[in-house]
Design a protein that fits this description.
Layout (H helix, E strand, L loop, with lengths): L2 H22 L8 H7 L1 H13 L5 E8 L2 E8 L5 H14 L1 H15 L8 E7 L5 E8 L3
Parallel strand pairs: 2-3
Antiparallel strand pairs: 1-2, 3-4
Length: 142
């Protein structure tokens, strides 16, 4: 797996963190990431626009908010056989350390100035048939 793919993902995560952090400045009420996005549809729209700007070939990228979790899902257009899935999962495991620290730092940025209690981010890669190839959840150091 190329580092450029990881860099594109990090660019997206930085954009998400900045949008949420800036938009949540001054928010007084304790809320979840999900309720924040519902109350601030312009932030969710900006994030969706950022997703659309990134040139991912052979996959779709989506984001979902549930309670205090933000799930970033990369779904391959193609359905890979068992051997290819194993190869991909190993490549993601081998490269996961490249995004671990950045993901936790981004979560810390997201919650700065907010009352989010237990925010987390999950990064998922799905096969074309919706079976999971790899996922990892990141929790804040808060």
């Amino acid at each position: 797996m190329k580092n450029s793919f990881v860099r594109k993902g990090l660019t997206l995560l930085i954009a998400i963190a900045m949008l949420v952090a800036f938009a949540s400045c001054g928010e007084q009420e304790t809320q979840t990431i999900e309720s924040f996005m519902v109350a601030n549809p312009e932030v969710a729209a900006d994030i969706d626009a950022k997703l659309g700007e990134l040139p991912y070939k052979g996959m779709t990228v989506s984001i979902e908010y549930k309670d205090d979790n933000c799930t970033l899902t990369y779904k391959f257009d193609e359905t890979y056989d068992k051997n290819k899935v194993k190869q991909r999962a190993k490549a993601f495991d081998d490269n996961a350390n490249l995004i671990d620290k950045q993901s936790i730092d981004l979560l810390d940025t997201i919650i700065k100035g907010t009352d989010f209690k237990n925010p987390s981010m999950t990064v998922r890669f799905l096969n074309g048939d919706d079976t999971e190839i790899w996922s990892k959840e990141y929790k804040t150091s808060k």
